[in-house]
Amino acid sequence: FTSEELVKDTFKTINAIDGKVEAFLTLNEEEALQQAKAADEKGYSEIVSLQGLPIGIKDNIVTKDLTTTAASRMLEGFNPIYDATVMEKLKAEGAVNIGKLNMDEFAMGGSTETSYYKKTKNPWDLTKVPGGSSGGSAAAVASGELLASLGSDTGGSIRQPASFTGVVGMKPTYGRVSRYGLIAFASSLDQIGPFTRNVKDNALVLEAISGYDTHDSTSVNKPVPAYHQGLTGDIKGMKIGLPKEYFGEGVDEEVQKAVLKAAEQYRQMGAIVEEVSLPHSKFGIPAYYIIASSEASSNLQRFDGIRYGHRTENAETLEELFVNSRSEGFGMEVKRRIMLGTFSLSSGYYDAYFKKAGQVRTLIKQDFAKVFADYDLILAPVTTSTAFGLGEKNDDPISMYMSDLLTVPVNLAGLPGISVPAGFSSEGLPIGIQLIGNYFQEQTIYQAAYAFE
Ligand code: GLN
């Protein structure tokens, strides 16, 4: 069939089910159909890898002339004047942008409930959250609306929703994918990555969006392997570490069991699976929330009511213009992070908080380096539980933060990590396993993920 048929069909599906799932914030119907027709005219090509493929984009990735809000009132109706680098790359590969996907406001959260616009539901159980912050991107793939989407992962926001909704979600090595045009949350942690239903598609999309970009000084100039090509399913002799600290208290038994069962499957496929230790990961949550909030407090200064987005009607002085625009434009969680970050960066507290968090970050990095001296991959749970109920953790930010325990160490170290579906809980909710690789070893991760699925 043609791309036009595929894209029309995609919008039909979205019209039929998005009223329930609420994954989308903005649809790009007119332009998508034009892109599809253009793709059909060019015909099949072996050079252009995503020709005519419908794909959805998290709403913190800027899209030229298409409303981009980061799910904040602050950016209501904001139409960017340029495309993020990942968008340019997707377009060059022939992909068709179907629309923008819901998320936690400025990617701060783990349930997609901090969005100013709507609450996305978990397609497996509409009373549960899809996870977050890339909840819309995950739900759209899990519900069958899309084959692929992009999300961003600062402390788990691709892997956790992928795990909660039973899809494949990859957070690449820091620097693998350009952040140019990604609305910054915590610049030293943020990374864009793909959601798909299977490993091969994921590899294909990552291949398309990866690579060096002069617009992002933290992007790394290293050739991009043809990730989807080396997938044989042969993992004989691969050395996999099981970090004992990731199977402790606070991690649901059913989740632990699913990961241990996966470990057994890997052994049967010929891998060597042994216990390893990541002793400083338990300090990941406090270190992450100090570093991420500090960087956010700096990054979000640009939303001043003058340059972008929401401007108050209610100001006599310049000071009031700043204060009231920000008070009206930002939601509770964003304000909480700005206050936490401003506090930990302030001169009297810098040494005790921000500097200390940086030291913990180094220790976490060193733990991983020690393990990767002897092992190819780390296998661990992604989340401490399966998807929780809508509203369940809303009034309890600490318990929401604690649920990021098993994902934030990867971001603090800058390593790549994936979530791959590994069955269901007794309640019928998806469980994911996390595979963590050494720097730029996405290929090894995909190989092991492919062998497992
Ligand atoms: N849940 C984490 C947070 O709220 C991670 C968010 C993310 O990765 N964008 O900061």
TrEMBL record:
It is an enzyme of class 6 (ligase). Coiled coil: none annotated. SUPFAM superfamilies: Amidase signature (AS) enzymes. It comes from the Bacteria. The keyword Transferase applies. It catalyses: L-glutamyl-tRNA(Gln) + L-glutamine + ATP + H2O = L-glutaminyl-tRNA(Gln) + L-glutamate + ADP + phosphate + H(+). GO terms for molecular function: ATP binding; glutaminyl-tRNA synthase (glutamine-hydrolyzing) activity; transferase activity. GO terms for cellular component: glutamyl-tRNA(Gln) amidotransferase complex. Its EC number is 6.3.5.7. Keywords: ATP-binding, Ligase, Nucleotide-binding, Protein biosynthesis, Transferase. Residues 5-445 form the Amidase domain. One of its GO terms (biological process) is translation. The active site is at 58 (charge relay system), 133 (charge relay system), 157 (acyl-ester intermediate). Heterotrimer of A, B and C subunits. NCBIfam families: gatA (TIGR00132). Belongs to the amidase family. GatA subfamily. Allows the formation of correctly charged Gln-tRNA(Gln) through the transamidation of misacylated Glu-tRNA(Gln) in organisms which lack glutaminyl-tRNA synthetase. The reaction takes place in the presence of glutamine and ATP through an activated gamma-phospho-Glu-tRNA(Gln). This is Glutamyl-tRNA(Gln) amidotransferase subunit A. It comes from Granulicatella balaenopterae.
